[in-house]
Amino acid sequence: MAATKVSGRMQSVSSDFAIGLDLLADVLFESDFPKEAFEREREVQLANIQARKDDLLKSASVAMRRMLFGERATGWMRAASRIRRRPSIAD
Length: 91
Description:
Shape: extended
Structural class: mainly alpha
Helix content: 55-70%
Largest sheet: none
Number of strands: 0
Strand content: under 5%
């Protein structure tokens, strides 16, 4: 089974915590990106992953993680290539 990780960071004063949490939830779960912008960013991220493979030090780091944690630790390209934009009302 593949793991999914979604993270975000929010910082606020205590009195505005609920407002900040609502805003973070909107950003994480209700974002609506134009199709072209989403695909452009997806391609940028895939290119960054590919560039990481071309860097000797980063490749060694990936190999070490693979030895320590198995194949699950290095599934970025597979996972990133499966990311798809959810259709929105604007489509």
